[in-house]
Automatic annotation (TrEMBL):
Keywords noted in UniProt: Monooxygenase, Oxidoreductase
InterPro entries listed in its UniProt record: Auxin_biosynth/cation_transpt, FAD/NAD-bd_sf
Gene3D superfamilies linked to this entry: FAD/NAD(P)-binding domain
Organism lineage: Bacteria, Bacillati, Actinomycetota, Actinomycetes, Kitasatosporales
Protein name: Flavin-dependent monooxygenase ArsO associated with arsenic resistance
Source organism per UniProt: Streptomyces globisporus
Positions of the UniProt region annotated as Disordered: 168-187
């Protein structure tokens, strides 16, 4: 059975919660958030332990709910969990969206948690589950370890090794490696 909504938000991380919890609700729209994660917290549940958000509260808090300055990953998960509960957002966890297609004047969102028909879809999926690895000269023949930020866990994994970090993303607060399209190659 197809459910009807004004808006379907695909992704229950920071962007999805901000769009739904503030903007859609303020406009009185009927919406649902489909989140592939089994629990609240978005991709922050999978970040390395030493990661700190690298922006001040004024730039990183979700609308209507101030957060702490430079929080650790676990604190961000708690913050997102609290935001979801505080605003009683209609999030379906464990609901991976598989396809969006036009269906007349509406959009049809097919997910493993059922099909929804909506006037609009907000894609707030982020990049964590499909990291981008750019082409780099010699990358295919490099014999050392190469990994993307999503596979990084701890600096202890690289103790005593020669490391090069390549990337163009933002740099978190000290004690963390840079977030980037691809993070480290070691010899």
């Amino acid at each position: 059975m197809t459910q009807h909504r004004d808006v379907v938000v695909v992704g229950g991380g920071r962007a999805g919660l901000a769009a739904a919890g503030y903007h859609l609700r303020r406009r009185g729209l009927d919406f649902v958030i489909l989140d592939a994660e089994a629990t609240p917290g978005g991709s922050w549940q999978h970040m390395w332990d030493s990661l700190h958000l690298f922006s001040p509260t004024a730039y990183s808090s979700l609308p209507g709910r101030p957060g702490e300055t430079y929080p650790e990953a676990g604190n961000v998960v708690d913050y997102l969990t609290d935001y979801e509960k505080r605003y009683n957002l209609p999030v379906l966890h464990g609901a991976r969206a598989g396809a969006v297609r036009r269906d007349g004047a509406k959009l049809l969102v097919k997910a493993d948690a059922g099909t929804r028909r909506a006037r609009a879809v907000i894609s707030a999926t982020g990049t964590w589950t499909q990291p981008f690895l750019p082409a780099a000269p010699g990358r295919s023949i490099f014999a050392g370890r190469q990994l993307h930020t999503v596979n990084y866990r701890s600096p202890a994994d690289f103790a005593g090794q020669h490391v090069i970090v390549v990337g163009g993303g933002g740099t978190p607060a000290p004690r963390s490696p840079p977030t980037s399209p691809w993070t480290a190659a070691t010899t």
